[in-house]
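Weekly modeling sync, notes
Attendees: S.R. (lead), two postdocs, one rotation student

Agenda item 3: backlog of single-chain predictions. S.R. asked that every request posted to the team notebook include the full sequence so nobody has to chase files. The rotation student volunteered to paste the first one in as an example of the format we agreed on. Action items at the bottom.

Example entry:
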Amino acid sequence: MDCSRAINEVEQRDMKTWSFRRYVIIMEYEHKPTLPPPIIVVNLLWRLGLHVYRNKTQTDASGSGDADRDNIGICFFIRLIVIVCESA
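Predicted structure, as returned to the notebook:
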């Protein structure tokens, strides 16, 4: 009996690990720029424009910004600064 319980625990832990790694890969793919490095500025400006537009329309509709969206925006700007500093 103990052996089957141990196997079930390992399988559950393995499923959680697999799900987390899958999520990381999907998010990495989603945030990957679509253009090559010299033209990446166009992509960054496009994403910045979308972020500002979404933030403005969401604020107008609800009256306040969403904390998760604000965190995503902060991460976006930090990533933008890192990319610009690396290319300089």
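Discussion: group reviewed the output briefly. The chain has a mean pLDDT of 76.
Action items: rotation student to repeat for the remaining queue; S.R. to check formatting next week.
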